[in-house]
Amino acid sequence: GENVEQHPSTLSVQEGDSAVIKCTYSDSASNYFPWYKQELGKRPQLIIDIRSNVGEKKDQRIAVTLNKTAKHFSLHITETQPEDSAVYFCAASYSGGGADGLTFGKGTHLIIQP
Amino acid sequence: DSGVTQTPKHLITATGQRVTLRCSPRSGDLSVYWYQQSLDQGLQFLIHYYNGEERAKGNILERFSAQQFPDLHSELNLSSLELGDSALYFCASNYRHNEQFFGPGTRLTVL
Question: For residue B87, what is the nearest residue in chain A, using CA coordinates?
Fold first, then answer.
């Protein structure tokens, strides 16, 4: 089955700086890669996703890049703000929307220092 | 609010017992997914139902079962509960191949 590795487990950055979280996946058949943000005690919320037919996707301060050859994808957050503090999870699936279920990484606790 | 509802919010029970968790998907969504989140295992996919039919199974124990009813709500049944089953259980829903929307979760504590 699919295995997703996520690094780092904790990331502390100064407010206004950029943050990068990296994930690798094992199954070359995977073609859907969402990123979720989870605040303490709340539900995971999708912040951005990318499908294997594109290499990069941007949404305001958030971007995701995908390298299918190397089987890794990354989340980039620019101009970080205090409200970006949360746990971020990457995931992979070999069907759009994760019909076979999403395989998640272990999460990255992002801390924005004022 | 994602539009996905789950009940109850919290559940406290004893080892060996059986519980049922309920999930109602967003209006128009035909798929329901169940996930378990624990400190040691992280977020794990359990099972996926689409329009009443089981579509995919993940790391779901034999003591756990699920079903999706004609009105599309779903129930996750956990039996012979063990201490290690204590976790947050989320359901998510989507329409076809679009993003999964998560419900608020049910926190299960097994004493």
Answer: A41
How far CA B89 is from CA of A61, B2, B103, in Å, comes to 31, 16, 9
Contact partners, residue B79, CB within 8 Å, separation at least 6? B18, B63, B64, B65
Per-residue pLDDT of B60-71, as tens digits, reads 999 999 999 999
DSSP label at B75? E
**pLDDT tens digits, residue range B14-71?**
999 999 999 999 999 999 999 999 988 899 999 999 999 999 999 899 999 999 999 9
Query: B27 CB near a chain A CB, below 8 Å?
Result: no
β-pair partners for A4: A25
Q: Is B97 on the interface with A (CB under 8 A)?
A: yes
Please judge whether B55 and A44 are an interchain contact, meaning their C-beta atoms are less than 8 angstroms apart.
no
